[in-house]
Amino acid sequence: MTDTTATPDTTGKGGGRRRLVISQEQIVLIVTALLAIGFALTLSGFATIGNLLALTRSVAILGILGIAMSVVVIGRGLDLSLVATMAVSSAFALQLMQHGWGWPGAAAAGMGVAIAIGLINGFIIAFVEVPALFTTLATGFLIFGLGRTFLLDGVITYLPPQAETFAWIGQGQLLGIPAPVIVLAIVALFVQVLLSRMTVGRFVYAHGDNVDAARLTGIAVRPLTMLEYAICAAIGCLAGLVMAASTASINMQIVNSTLIFDVILVVVLGGVSLVGGRGGVLSVLAGTALIGTLLNGMTIMDLDNNIQNIVKGAVLLAAIIVDNRLHPQDEETARQGD
């Protein structure tokens, strides 16, 4: 949000000066607009209706995952198992549909698997006090292995032909707006209300800002941590269901892709601080718009995957450095795993 503040006159000439402070989200949106204009003028096919529809669909899924990740990052956490949770839970739901389950029941079962994974992550982090980085890195591999071995029949799980209603959330449109964008809007509104209007949201910010102070004010920090990871996993499962409906399948190899780093990139780039307690849904949406546009442009240019990874890595490193300069840690905020 733009903040126009009056600053005292330090020039000795009398009068006051008004300084226009532009937020990180607005800077990112300006860069996104400039990048989109540049791509539209230089890349054949970027500004076509078909490409823009594909861009909005892919950006929607990335945005949903980014919003999921932001809940735990604001609470000074991190979930590297998010993509594995998304893939296993949504593939499990599709497999149940293949075995005759209706899509509401199958989606609910997949969501239950995701929430259980989130609660386990939160329990280990909050009660066993293993840092989030190591916990979710390990559970990501564990989830992938257990899902492939005990829950799923193969690497790729396909959406059954009789699930046309379910497929709408990935392939349909409402008033010309792709259904995945509508789902993104609903998720964004829900999380925005949760974080800014509800008591639990204020607790999440307090938890991320200062764990000790949050505990001293009476906040149940450990159960709150479990709730944060459960919400993250549930929204991640929803992103997986939208992805499955869009492509009529889920490929478990997505766990081995760079998607999790794309998610972290949009979260940090938009202004959600890794030290916790800062940022929000608008931050994620700004980062999603920029990274989605950048990835789409690089795909049209047919850049080698290694070059794309170099660009994304450089942008992520720059975003982390800027975040570290804007929000330096002190002795109180540096404590992890409580």
TrEMBL record:
UniProt membrane topology term: Multi-pass membrane protein
Keyword Kinase part of the UniProt annotation: no
CDD domains: TM_PBP1_transp_AraH_like (cd06579)
InterPro entries: ABC_transp_permease
Highest rank taxon of the organism: Bacteria
Molecular function terms, GO-annotated: transmembrane transporter activity
Keywords per UniProt: Cell inner membrane, Cell membrane, Membrane, Transmembrane, Transmembrane helix, Transport
Gene Ontology, cellular component aspect: plasma membrane
Predominant place of localization: membrane
Transmembrane segments annotated in the record for this chain: 27-49, 55-73, 80-97, 103-125, 132-152, 172-195, 229-248, 254-275, 282-301
Localization (cell): Cell inner membrane
Stated family: Belongs to the binding-protein-dependent transport system permease family. AraH/RbsC subfamily.
Protein name listed in UniProt: Monosaccharide ABC transporter membrane protein (CUT2 family)
Lineage start: Bacteria, Pseudomonadati, Pseudomonadota, Gammaproteobacteria, Nevskiales
